Amino acid sequence: MKRRGILFVVSGPSGVGKGTVRASLFEREGVNLSYSVSMTTRAPREGEVDGVDYFFAERAQFETMMAQDGFIESAEFCGNYYGTPKAYVEKQLEAGHDVVLEIEVQGAFQVKKAMADAVFIFIAPPSLNELQSRLNGRGTESPDVVLKRLQTAVKEMMLMSEYDYVVTNNEVQAAVDHILAIIEAEHLTVERVAANIREDLLSEAVDF
Amino acid sequence: MKRRGILFVVSGPSGVGKGTVRASLFEREGVNLSYSVSMTTRAPREGEVDGVDYFFAERAQFETMMAQDGFIESAEFCGNYYGTPKAYVEKQLEAGHDVVLEIEVQGAFQVKKAMADAVFIFIAPPSLNELQSRLNGRGTESPDVVLKRLQTAVKEMMLMSEYDYVVTNNEVQAAVDHILAIIEAEHLTVERVAANIREDLLSEAVDF
Fold it and tell me: Which end of chain A has less Cβ packing within 10 Å, N or C?
């Protein structure tokens, strides 16, 4: 019997390392996860493949899809649209694949409205001092920008209670282990399995 | 900062192999779990150690504890009382240890009333045919008794929706893996960690 996949949303403040955690998660052997491919209106960069890195679309096409409620989340950034096409995710879930969507906190709240049965994982920094040094470590922003990002991070930390799980990113592989445990456990929750098991058993019970 | 342990209740129909699963869980290396020690009024058997196998008690002592609501579950069986002392479990949880309680379905429902924040794991048979052959395999009961147990098992299967998780015992080590994933994930649920993390961060935030 085909069981539906689960959408896992991995999110957290800027600088927390959620991109690294997500990449390491997909590098793990024996892990069978689909990564959600985003759609964008920006031009493909050298080497980017349509349908792999992004679905590339014209602005009019994107806006039509937005009007038809075709995204589970979307945003405009530097004059370009970015969004997660609902149909692509639904197709993966229907085929029984778990989908991981790595996304900013604001986007996660959009997903929560669109996909009620998704599982929300908040990646937290070990401490604000650590987050600050990670943001500094990029070396690409001025102290003012770093401070502003930290303030945003604190506000986003306050939103973690809206998530289902909190994984502290002390060490990337430990965080990946935690996410894998969450994925395994979510497949065992009574809401997801009891109906299927009872169905199997009842169809069998007529033999007695 | 000391975090409170979690009580995991492992339960399921007779013959499903929950005792074997629990024993294998405790044999796993690196697993740090406390096993709940029951109290009983029956006489100690050769080699049984008070406080390890059971807490042995007089009938009057047991009844006083029952009257004082001192058990998270208790039952009378063949003229002897059996029960799980609340104080012992609470002490383990307060010390930050997770406690595993393996118990019959009826007892699990008593625990649910006494310990609202416990996590309930239902061990399900792969199929009713398999459960029947496991009950037969014991070779100790008549076909009538086996049939009666199967009927009880079907009724108990109907109660699984009251649990939090369902682990199908196809293979003992796989079931143990599932339980370990559930234990890890439960420590990451937002209800259990968000308050602690926010507290840590806010105490730190004054530095900025």
Answer: N
Inside any domain, residue A102: yes
pLDDT category, B32, cuts 50, 70, 90? confident
Interface subset of B 145-204, CB within 8 angstroms of A: 147, 150, 154, 157-158, 160-161, 163-168, 177-178, 180-182, 184-186, 188-190, 193-194, 197-198, 200-201, 204
Q: In chain A, how many domains are there?
A: 1
**B146 min Cα distance to partner chain A (Å):** 12
Tell me the pTM.
0.87
ipTM for this model: 0.84
Give me the domain span that covers residue B121: 7-36+97-205
Provide the residue type at A143 as one letter: P
Q: CB-based contact (8 Å) between B122 and chain A? A: yes
- The answer to whether B189 contacts A124, with C-beta atoms less than 8 Å apart, is no
A124·B168 Cβ contact <8 A: no
**pLDDT at res. B205:** 56
Reported as type and span, the H/E element at residue B108 is helix B105-114
Residues 6+ apart with CB under 8 A from A36: A84, A88, A89, A92, A99, A100, A101
pLDDT for B204 equals 63
CB B109 within 8 A of CB B162: yes
CATH value at residue A138: 3.40.50.300
Residue A199 is assigned to a structural domain of this protein: yes
Please report the pLDDT score of residue A134 as a whole number.
80
Asked, for residue B189, whether it belongs to a domain, the answer is yes
Residue B52 lies in a domain: no
With an 8 Å Cβ cutoff, is B57 touching chain A? no
Query: Taking CB atoms and an 8 Å cutoff, what residues of chain B touch A188?
Result: 165-167, 178, 181-182
For A10-32, b/e burial (b = at least 16 CB within 10 A) is bbbbbbbbbeebbeebeeeeeee
CA A74 to chain CA mean position, Å: 13
A143: pLDDT confidence band, cut at 50, 70 and 90? confident
